[in-house]
Design brief:
The structure is a single chain. The chain is α+β, with helices and mostly antiparallel strands and about 525 residues long. It has 2 domains: about 350 residues, no CATH class; about 100 residues, Immunoglobulins (Immunoglobulin-like). Helices cover about 45% and strands about 15% of the residues. The protein is built from 19 helices and 17 strands. Helix 5 runs antiparallel to helix 7 and helix 7 crosses helix 8. The longest helix has 30 residues. The protein is elongated, with a radius of gyration of 40 Å. The termini are far apart. The relative contact order is 0.11.
């Protein structure tokens, strides 16, 4: 009977998969007015959000080795992670780190579902713990907000709406400034704020644009970001499995759902026929003993769900969690708190809606570490080990030396050749580095063209050119490997190998020009004259 009822529930409720809860049949937005949640999970989420906000507001002011603790400067192609400076030359590390992050997301989602979304996602933290609370404070609970919006524009409504949106925009400005601080740095943001607008017009416009975007997200888009825009939310359909821990409704215990009815006092039993007459009592007993036994008609057992719909009323995305795992669910635990409160009031066990997997609900056996989880874990550990290895071997300077295009070699005299090279030195550290180029191959000598590099500023690069001069007797054919070291404070910090180009055969004798010939003839004539004397 119960299985038939569950099948009927699934069959009747499949319509919810055809559209999201916030769009009607005409495609028009359904504005949500969620009831203010309360309970232990909501309190825990509040404390987690406080910790998150503290880190979010403090980190831009923290500096390590003169660099911001976290910086993602896309404009200048400069990234700082935990005080380590990364440049475009570290692109291979960036790709590997992104691959590691993707595998981590997959593993975390396979095991814990959208736990991140409900607890520490910036969208959820700002929306539910800041903007939504301000809305409750000014306009009241969900039902009061609905009445206010549907009512006429009275002076009280105008005041409430104006106050709410003014606060919303002010917070959006603060959030946008901090967002920019993670991109261009807090020092530049403070300069934009403190200096005249004319000196930082580009930064001021960017600040206004970001402020408008954040205001639009939290004042109008809201849950639409999680259900239709966020790529992580859209990936849930391919990442979640039956063993993933999600906010789940225990349909085995809750169905078939039914309204809670108060028990009526038992009516007084009717007196048997012949009450008070011994003869009639005996005859009545015989009649009852010989009567055909009548069995009671079987009735369906009502589950623990009393269909109060509070789980729907508190949901910030407007879904019915009893329909099962859905794309819109962010695992915010609001329905868990609401259901636990109802179960406590009717003296039934809490946890009808809880963190569990579909396997755990159906078989009462939770299985987290599956073969798939072990495989993802092994890949993640391998990638993390490779990340650590490459970062540990990462040098403090990036050296790029290339032969000048279009030139092979120049013959300086009968015994020496030169090659022209260009160099680029990139400082990956957070301090200035004194540098010097030095050839270590036997016979090779570096001659800098122009001003010799002395030092490189932190995070900067210098470019230039130099000649390498080598004696012909040191050449090893057409290409001769040459090693060049970069010296800083007397220590080698990098080494690069390049090729020195030379002739494939013996070095030809150089023809003497007219000036050299005149000089030699003059020397010979002077020597001959001295000999005659």
């Amino acid at each position: 009977m119960t299985n038939e009822f569950l099948n009927q529930v699934v069959e009747d409720s499949e319509e919810y998969r055809d559209h999201i809860a916030t769009v009607d049949q005409k495609g028009k937005r359904i504005w949500l007015y969620p009831k203010q949640p309360s309970g232990r999970y909501y309190r825990w989420r509040t404390w987690v959000s406080v910790v998150f906000l503290i880190f979010f507001l403090v980190i831009p002011f923290i500096k390590v080795n003169g660099e911001q603790f976290l910086l993602f400067n896309i404009l200048e192609r400069k990234f700082v992670l935990f005080g380590l400076l990364f440049t475009p030359q570290d692109f291979h590390l960036f790709v590997l780190a992104m691959l590691t992050f993707i595998v981590f997301i997959i593993l975390f989602t396979v095991v814990y579902g959208r736990l991140f979304c409900g607890w520490v996602c910036p969208q959820t933290v700002f929306m539910e713990m800041i903007f939504r609370k301000i809305e409750y404070w000014i306009e009241g609970d969900g039902n009061e907000q609905r009445k206010l919006d549907s009512g006429p524009w009275t002076p009280q409504k105008v005041r409430k709406k104006a106050l709410k949106h003014a606060i919303f925009f002010a917070i959006a400005v603060v959030v946008s400034n901090y967002f920019l601080a993670y991109i261009i740095g807090m020092d530049k943001v403070l300069a934009i704020i403190s200096q005249p607008i004319s000196q930082n017009m580009g930064g001021f416009v960017a600040m206004l644009v970001f402020s408008g975007v954040f205001y639009l997200v939290f004042a109008r888009l809201r849950e639409q970001v999680c259900t239709t825009i966020c790529p992580y939310g859209r990936l849930q359909g391919v990442l979640l499995v039956k063993d993933s821990i999600v906010v789940a409704y225990d349909h085995v215990r809750g169905e078939p759902r039914g309204k809670l009815k108060k028990e009526k006092p038992a009516a007084e039993a009717p007196r048997p026929v012949g009450y008070g007459n011994p003869v009639e009592q005996v005859l009545s007993s015989v009649k009852e003993a010989t009567a055909t036994v009548q069995y009671p008609v079987a009735t369906a057992k009502i589950g623990d769900c009393i269909d109060c719909k509070l789980c729907i009323a508190v949901c910030p995305t407007g879904i019915d969690i009893r329909n099962g795992t859905q794309l819109e669910c962010t695992n915010c635990t609001a329905c868990m708190d609401a259901c636990d409160a109802v179960m406590t009031k009717i003296n039934r066990p809490t946890g009808l809606i809880r963190y569990d997997s579909m396997t755990g609900i159906e078989s009462s056996r939770r299985k987290i570490f599956t073969t798939r989880v072990y495989a993802y874990t092994a890949v993640l550990i391998a990638l993390l080990a490779l990340d650590v290895f490459l970062i540990a071997r990462r040098g403090s300077i990036e050296t790029i030396i290339l032969r000048s295009p279009g030139q092979l070699y120049q013959q300086k005299d009968d015994t020496h050749l030169t090659n022209l090279y260009t160099y680029t030195l990139i400082n990956k550290t957070a301090k200035d580095l004194p540098v010097k180029l030095q050839a270590v191959t036997a016979g090779a000598v570096i001659q800098i063209v122009g001003k010799e590099p002395v030092s490189i500023a932190k995070g900067e690069k210098i470019e230039g050119a130099f000649f390498i001069e080598m004696p012909a007797d040191q050449l090893k054919g057409r290409k001769t490997p040459v090693k060049i070291e970069v010296i800083s404070d007397g220590k080698k910090i990098d080494e690069v190998e390049t090729n020195f180009m030379g002739p494939s055969g013996p070095l030809p004798k150089m023809e003497k020009d007219s000036d050299e010939k005149l000089e030699e003839e003059s020397e010979e004539h002077s020597g001959k004259k001295k000999h005659d004397d």
